[in-house]
Amino acid sequence: MNTSRRPVYLDCNATTPIEPKVKEILIRYIEEEFGNEGSRTHVYGASAKQAVQKARGQVANVVNAKREEVIFTSGATESNNLAILGLEKHGLKSGNKHIITSAIEHKAVLEPMEEMERRGFDVTYLQPDHSGRIKTQQVAEALRDDTLLISIMHANNETGIIQPISEIADLLNEHKAYLHTDAAQSFGKVFEALQHPRIDFISASGHKLYAPKGIGTLIVRRRGFSKAPLSPIIFGGGQERGLRPGTLPVAIIAAFGLACELAVKNQDVRFRSIIAQRSAAMTALNELNIRLSGDQTQVMPHVVNFSIDGIDSEALILALKDIVAISNGSACTAHSYTPSHVLMAMGMTKNQAEECVRLSWSHLTPTVDWEKLTSRIKSLA
After folding, report:
1. How do residues 243-271 score in pLDDT, each as one tens digit?
2. How crowded is residue 234: how many other Cβ atoms within 10 Å of its Cβ?
3. Hey, which residues does 101 pair with through a beta bridge?
């Protein structure tokens, strides 16, 4: 297919293109090294097992975890469900039935939280202010003796605003509650905070990090010699330390592992690339009197969420569809056509939320014709 006339893809928060080297290893393990990791009687199985173990180390290295703390899942949605619903039995047994989360979480966290409420748990939903951030003090004030879990995302998928997850981890040094973060947007992009040893559970997806869809991880850190009291939410086979049964998809695991290795190795080069692209984007967009969403001192550098007074996001997306591919919210809820729960929680009106669009790019993004883009937008005013 001729892709030369396709719009430039600026929706990397929804999914990223596959890194070329990652694609190569994916094909290799599909075509040549296709053995089952659980097969112990021949070289094909041994090769698959070696690939999986290597990938565990590559994934763990992103957040300074141990190889055995890496549980492979189908993606961050499943990881979030396992981290939240998997604590139900422990919560009921211990009597700790209070959970803290935020109103700006992805639906992959909010919906399991609703399920926990149906099962008798008390969930506190923290509200951000216009900055798009949850304050550490809010967590401190909500914390109770019977708090079982705090689940706060690391970076928001719609605004790109980074949450103070390491500060929250510090707050919990003297508390028994478990700390989970949905790091789908930040894993392999923002490093230091996720290396905090007090973060018990980290969810991530391969397809946000230049690997294929269908693979992710839940990193389950031990506290000293104690493992977290998670219970499986699906059953059959006993793989992944009994927490996530099913035949391991070796090809996409190997691809995810390499994507993680490259993220660590090339982080400085990638950062310079996306900063240069941000500079070009903001130089162009600032001509349009845009309104930026959230605290821009806390935003991931490859994301900009903005609006222009009087221009609906759907109209803007359609007007630019031959120039750039952009979004006006989470890809997982875009079919609902309802105002963003994230932007509304930040205090925007319905009309303001419906004017917001999101641009998100990567080191693989080609040059955007910003002059053409701004000219097209000006024609809408």
Report:
1. 999 999 999 999 999 999 999 999 999 99
2. 12
3. 125, 151
Which of the 8 DSSP states describes residue 102? E
**Domain residue limits at 342:** 8-18+267-378
| Cβ partners under 8 Å of residue 240, min gap 6 | 71, 72, 73, 248
CA pair distance 361, 251, nearest whole angstrom: 26
Residue 361's CATH number: 3.90.1150.10
Q: Which residues are tagged catalytic?
A: 332
Token pair, residue 22, equals 């990652």
Which pLDDT band holds residue 2 (cuts at 50, 70, 90)?
very low
Which is nearest to 149 in space by CA: 218, 204, 226, 87? 87
**Structural domain contains residue 2:** no
pLDDT of residue 60: 98
Q: What are the backbone dihedrals phi and psi of residue 76, each rounded to the nearest 5 degrees, phi first?
A: -65, -30
How does DSSP assign 273-322, residue by residue? HHHHHHHHHHHHHGGGT-EE-S-GGGB-TTEEEEE-TT--HHHHHHHTTT
pLDDT band at 1 (very low <50, low <70, confident <90, very high): very low
The answer to whether residue 3 is domain-embedded is: no
Assess contact for 200 and 149: CB atoms under 8 A. no
Which of the listed residues 264, 287, 305 is the one where a domain comes to its end?
264
Strands 291-292 vs 303-307: parallel, antiparallel or unpaired? antiparallel
78 & 217 share domain: yes
Number of domains in the chain: 2
Residues 341 and 361 in one domain: yes
Strands 122-126 and 98-102: parallel
Domain C-terminal end among 264, 286, 313: 264
Give the full edge-to-edge strand order of the sheet including 98-102. Answer: 70-73, 216-220, 201-205, 178-182, 147-151, 98-102, 122-126
What Å distances lie between residue 35 and 44, 116, 316, 366, CA to CA?
A: 5, 38, 48, 37
Bridge-based pairing of strands 98-102 and 178-182 is: unpaired
